[in-house]
Design brief:
The protein is an alpha/beta fold. The chain contains ten helices and ten strands. The radius of gyration is 18 Å and the shape is globular. Pfam families: Rhodanese.
């Protein structure tokens, strides 16, 4: 896997003393304080970088609000960020996507989660000393961003794009984009190790669904959380043509987009 996208617990352990490596814990504050965290990690809870009022696209919090969070956490634009949660990385992947969208060049997902880290590495309940920064965001342009909207998705439906729905079976059967394949985002995780499956296994698994690196891929779910994990995994595997439908099915239905319903044979 590409270490510029996903890093192993051993990689993180070897770089904890690097002052330019900032570890971000996106779990709830009670977990961070009460259960413990990776040494030196700062707490930026999931709800703090998600805004349901649509001040920006989808549930993105807005560049200034996100920059304020990073400033308070003592993070600078040149730092390497490694994010983790305790839910196989799905909430941390949303942080990765958000940071990338607002122009942070080096942000990575911890392979596994807090439980995976805790098996072999030290944890602490001590809060780190934080020296606030003045973080200046540099949001991606519409052309640079992987995020797409309703009209772009409509256009992609006319092409040979693979639409990937990462939701549960009942959600998929209730309504889905035409021709979409259902891919449970959790299938890429090894239940025993809590980490991603080996690269060859991942590529074979994705190929079973027609999700291959030579195809145009469009990801969606309901509110763009679950697809964040799939997006990061595909980037780590070297997929280049991956679009992220930030509005997802919530926006699609609000705009009376065409859907299919029912079980798939």
């Amino acid at each position: 896997m590409d270490e510029s996208v996903v890093v192993t617990p051993d990689w993180l352990a070897a770089h904890l003393e690097d002052p330019q490596v900032c570890v971000v814990d996106v779990r709830d504050p009670w977990e961070y304080d009460g259960i413990g965290h990776v040494p030196g990690a700062v707490s930026i809870p999931f709800d703090s970088y998600r805004d349901e009022t649509d001040v920006d696209r989808g549930t993105l919090p807005g560049a200034d609000a996100f920059a304020e969070l990073l400033s308070e956490a003592g993070i600078a634009p040149a730092d390497t960020i490694v994010a983790y949660d305790d839910t196989h990385g799905v909430f941390a992947a949303r942080f990765v996507l958000t940071a990338l969208e607002y122009g942070h060049d080096d942000v990575r997902l911890l392979d596994g989660d807090y439980s995976a880290w805790n098996r072999d590495h030290e944890t602490t309940s001590d809060a780190p000393d934080i020296e606030p920064t003045t973080y200046d965001p540099d949001p991606l342009s519409r052309e640079e961003s992987p995020l797409v909207g309703f009209e772009a998705v409509e256009a992609a439906l006319e092409r040979d794009a693979v639409f990937v729905d990462t939701r549960e079976v009942d959600e998929f059967e209730e309504a889905r984009l035409p021709g979409a394949v259902r891919f449970d985002w959790r299938e890429v995780v090894d239940d025993e190790t809590r980490r991603l499956k080996p690269r060859d296994d991942l590529e074979a698994l994705l190929a079973e669904y027609g999700i291959t690196s030579d195809r145009e891929i469009v990801l969606y779910c309901n509110t763009a959380r679950r697809i964040s994990h799939t997006y990061v995994v595909l980037r780590a595997l070297g997929y280049e043509d991956v679009a992220f439908y930030e509005g997802s099915l919530t926006e699609w239905l609000a705009n009376d987009g065409e859907v299919e319903r029912g079980a798939v044979d």
